[in-house]
Amino acid sequence: MIEFRVDRALGLPAYLQLVRQVREALRLGWLRPGDRLPTVRDVVASSGVNANTVLKAYRELEHAGLVEARQGSGTFVRASLGSVDAAVMAGLRDRLTEWVTAARAAGLEDEDVDALMRAVLAGETDNRVEGA
């Protein structure tokens, strides 16, 4: 079962953090159709967010067609995201873990890694600042 983490220093509304965590879990295969999301009460107890925040996140996921609320039973995953084979994903994760380990050994902090990753994803590696 997914365990939500809310980082109040992130600058992203808590409900969007919950939505993003579910979407990431779906992409990584950690959640699959039929899986039950934690109850609102459990999320409130574990993450310290307001019940309305959890409900807003679950509604957003429901509108996206990713989960469905079943009266009296809970909220269940309805669809998956991503189509990459689980073995391929595991191999890529292992290589990325090695890369992150090397980046930390080189002195990069999370913010450095995040900036570098976003630049690579955006294809901006050739757009370096002149004179830098």
Secondary structure blueprint with pairings:
Elements lengths: L13 H14 L12 H8 L3 H13 L3 E4 L3 E4 L8 H20 L4 H12 L11
Antiparallel strand pairs: 1-2
Helix pairs in contact: 1-3
Description:
The protein is mainly α and 132 residues long. It has five helices and two strands, in the order αααββαα. It has helices at residues 14-27, 40-47, 51-63, 86-105, 110-121, and strands spanning 67-70, 74-77. A hairpin with a 3-residue loop joins β1 (67-70) and β2. α1 packs across α3. The protein starts with 13 loop residues before the first helix and ends in an 11-residue tail after the last helix.
Brief descriptors of the model:
132 residues, mainly alpha, 5 helices, 6% strand, globular
Helix/strand-derived class?
mainly alpha
User: Approximately how much beta-strand content do the residues carry?
Assistant: 5-15%
Nearest-integer average pLDDT: 90
Number of strands: 2
Largest sheet: 2 strands, antiparallel
Q: What's the end-to-end separation, in Å?
A: 46 Å
- Overall form: globular
Radius of gyration: 18 Å
Please identify the oligomeric state.
single chain
How much helix is in the residues? 40-55%
